[in-house]
Amino acid sequence: MSLLEIRALTVRYKSRAGPVPAVQDLDLDLEKGKTLGLVGESGCGKSTLGKAVLRILPERTEVLGSIRFAGKDLVAASAADLQAIRGYNVSLIFQDPMTRLDPLMTIEDHFLELLRSHESEIEDDAARERAKTVLTAVRIPPDRMGQYPHEFSGGMRQRIMIALALVFNPTLLIADEPTTSLDVIVEAQILHLLDSIKRDFDMGVMLITHNLGLVAEYADEMAVMYAGRIVERGHVPEVFRDPLHPYTKGLLESVIDLDTKALTSIPGQPPDLLDPPKGCAFHPRCAAVMAQCSSAVPPVTRPREGRETRCYLYPG
Amino acid sequence: MTMAAPLVRAKDMKVHYPLFKGFLQRLFGGGRLVVRALDGVSFEVRRGEIFGLVGESGCGKSTAGRALMGLTPITDGEIVLEFPEEAAGREERVRPLGLRLVCLAWWAAAAVHLADAAGFALTGSAFLPLGLMASTPGIYLALVGGAATALAGLGLALWMLQPWSRRPARVVAGINAILAFAIMPWGLFEVAMESAIVAYLGTPGPVGLLRRSGWLVPATRFTLRKEGVLEGAEDDEDPPWSERWLLGPRAVKTAGLSWVLKQLRAKVQIVYQDPHAAMSPGMTIGESIGHALRAHGTSTVAGAAAGSLERSREPAREDVRASALRLLEDVGLRPPEQFHDRLSTELSGGQKQRAVIARALAPRPLLLVADEPVALLDMSIRAMVLDLLLDLKRRYGLTYVFITHDLATAKLVCDRIAIMYLGRIVEMGEASRIYADPKHPYTKALLDAIPIPDPARRRTKVLPKGEVPDAVFPPAGCRFHPRCPVALPSCGWEGRDFLEYLEERRLDPATLAAEEEAFGEIPDWSAEGPLASRKLPPEKAEALATRVREALEEAPVPLRKAVASVGVEGDYVRIRFRPPAVLAPKEVEGRTVECLLY
Known about the structure:
The structure holds two protein chains of two kinds.
Chain A: E1 4-13, E2 20-30, E3 35-39, H1 46-54, E4 62-69, E5 72-73, H2 79-85, E6 90-93, H3 97-100, H4 107-118, H5 124-137, H6 154-166, E7 172-176, H7 184-201, E8 204-209, H8 212-218, E9 221-226, E10 229-235, H9 236-241, H10 246-254, E11 308-309
Parallel strand pairs in A: 3-8, 3-9, 6-7, 7-8
Antiparallel strand pairs in A: 1-2, 1-4, 4-5, 9-10, 10-11
Helix pairs in contact in A: 4-5, 5-6, 6-7
Chain B: E1 6-18, H1 23-28, E2 34-46, E3 50-54, H2 61-68, E4 76-83, H3 85-88, H4 99-123, H5 136-161, H6 169-201, H7 206-213, E5 224-230, E6 241-247, H8 258-265, E7 268-271, H9 275-278, H10 285-296, H11 303-306, H12 317-330, H13 336-340, H14 349-361, E8 367-371, H15 379-396, E9 399-404, H16 407-413, E10 416-421, E11 424-430, H17 431-436, H18 441-449, H19 495-505, H20 512-519, E12 525-528, E13 531-535, H21 538-553, H22 557-562, E14 563-569, E15 572-577, E16 586-588, E17 591-593
Parallel strand pairs in B: 3-9, 3-10, 7-8, 8-9
Antiparallel strand pairs in B: 1-2, 1-4, 4-6, 5-6, 10-11, 11-17, 12-13, 13-15, 14-15, 16-17
Helix pairs in contact in B: 4-5, 5-6, 10-12, 10-14, 12-14, 14-15
């Protein structure tokens, strides 16, 4: 059984202009001890998906389908059940470590508050010991625990966030752009850390990012999202070696790295989610567009072993 | 690449942002801490090239870009911008303006004030219209008024000139506070009085004289010079101008100078990272661009690409529209008519950035500072905007200063790059050489940290430890030394590096208790320059010194070898470090490197 099993998930935000389908008819699996890279550009729904797993979406957001975490359906779960899972079995690391820690609380206070939220009986000393253990795991000197967030650098704050996420030994960690606001060296440091922690704690990690380089370096599986749908899924080396969907191809070509010789990009603009193109949402920007692309959304097909895509180029 | 003439020369440029603690400290000094955003940076930008300023956040790359166009006053050093004659020839003739003359004018004003005051005191004549001279109190009033006028004139002149501006910040703040509280109100009173008298008598007082002569510039606290250089021209009427701008320390903060700076801004424009913040949401794209066109008087249809630009003072509405449309067309917003009347909020990120670029091009700049122009755009459209920038450079004959944290993008677009770290340039030269064979350990680290989008080439990276330190207290010697994998004992090790080493030793949970037992809490220690010390009663000190020596034996080699002595001095255990070797930029294989390895 997968650690996380998402089936036919649809998430619609309410807005004045009508419902905004941020995630549509999405299937996804994540195994224990693996890292899933979820890539896509802004507005593709990757963050919404991460939040949907923890059910921390705005009220009145419509969530359909099922999200099974360790056998339990999170879509149908009660508020109390969700509260017991959040931060305890499933943890989330956000993009901006500068704003996620309370500036008026010391690091120790953060740990005490978090530990008491799930283990109300815990003694102060025991709580401090647990905090020290995770802080050394993320290489923060534990005797700095009495300090306030502003006394730490950006990378250290993100490591503290990771330590907070790890304190209950969760089985699933959702990292939503964990290094976007950090510099390239610190980014590499943090992801190295996450990678080794994943092994030590035997967690499943969902790494949400727009940076294909990070997926190539740290993820085992990957899913590419476009306009709320997963357009391609597979093992990282295979997807990079042989991308199927034209969007994945375009995205891989438009990455600028040290070996890039010429600039390539995908023509056109990202879709408007309020009024997405009919059929395959990518068809107005697609080089291999066919007549049927604009009529109906292509079904999921498995053209290769362990690969999935949504494109008429690969019928069944 | 041919060696073109430098357009920009920055020499030993420093920008220190003062760090004030509060209002009182601001007034009376004491806030002497500064953020050393730029600490001695020199580079040249040649005509027609793309010069990259590359580094992590806090390295000073954006500050350098802003300083080039006078957006951020520099604390020390010098920036010279020299625009070639043919380009300057497109400009209407601007009277060469030495702002030192303005300073002189203010001194003259002060002198007139003093004379005026003497006149007051002797005859009280200026008060006559008010009918006060008839009485004894009137004479006293005139005397007091005269003295006040003299003082105010002097105070005003002093405030404008700030002859003490090079004194310590505390002194500057103190004197300014005294002036502001004691003299400036008199100055204002005096100016009001003067105006009243002038209005009543119809004869100009000193202020009026100044105004009439056109020299009333309300501030002179800067060194900003624009010189018209006459190059072998006989005809005085229409000489081939080449322009030279000198931006010195304390340049330009005052609103009164905007008209001088405006002429510089027409030549140097900036494109920021965030297109959403750069465009007014209440204006249509056409209005935004139109503002820039009107402000600089550059709306002539014919002049667009040809360079034969006439600058008219009052551009016609149709001309502005036509120019804006042409710019929109040039940045690829087609059809331009449609984008012209749209609000910026109706555009996607990529389109907005194109509009921002169009607006930056409106004053016909020669130099464009592009500060992370694609960092906020989605991967699939980054390349398009970069392509556009390269294309525009060719068509408009631009020179770019390209600021980025992304070494991969810099490799693709830049001719020459400067790698910056904490306010210094660590390596600078032809981009191709630096990427082929980076010399500075920091450059190597940066290149190694870039994720490679190819799972087949996964590798273990050797990353420098820690993060960029605080620019308020930059490390001694080479600023990169605490993180450098190949540091030498002479790189600038100091007291706090020892404390950091103590902290690192505590990361092992097994020895944590023993460490605390032996060395105490980290805050018990203090580090000051080359010294690290802890206060202890003498009977315990010797034992601690021994422990420190033992700990240093296990320390990384450069740190250990940099220690001059460990000993007990009175109540203190002190670790003393050797002074760092002198670090200076060196020429190494066709580029400049600042590192002791070479």
